[in-house]
Design goal:
about 140 residues, alpha+beta, 4-stranded antiparallel β-sheet, 3 helices
């Protein structure tokens, strides 16, 4: 049997092929469940990667303290980084290089973490003419 009115026939055929509201809701539910599972997995992977990253201390905080002063004294000083970098200690050795107030500051960072212990040494030079120095390199 043929349809006399093509508009009525196409609507009748289209109604049979459409999704019901229940089918759409179930499809959306499954889609969002899959998306949330993927996002949860990515979030856990990023957290695991962040926990594997090692944070290493640098001398910037130690050197900044010396940059604030106009006078230096020869000698050594030791300390640790506290809760910021647990397991790391530092040592600072200040020595006079020239009689005009040029000092060499050696920073050593020691790591007790891990199997082999490691030491990093960095040196900076500071010119502090306000530090009183005799002509023979001795402090006054």
């Amino acid at each position: 049997m043929r349809c006399q009115a093509p508009v009525v026939c196409s609507r009748a055929k289209g109604a049979m092929r459409a999704f019901t509201l229940l089918e759409v809701v179930i499809a959306l539910f499954l889609f969002f469940m899959a998306i949330f599972a993927i996002l949860g997995s990515v979030s856990r992977s990023l957290a695991a990667a962040r926990s594997l990253q090692q944070k290493f201390p640098d001398i910037s905080a130690l050197a900044a303290e010396l940059m604030l002063t106009n006078r230096l004294e020869e000698g050594s000083m030791e300390g640790d980084f506290g809760d910021l970098y647990p397991g790391y200690t530092w040592r600072r050795d200040i020595s006079l290089m020239a009689t005009n107030g040029l000092f060499q500051v050696d920073f050593t960072i020691h790591s007790g973490k891990g199997r082999p212990s490691a030491d990093w040494t960095t040196s900076i030079y500071l010119w502090r003419p306000e530090s009183r120095v005799s002509s023979f390199g001795r402090r006054l």
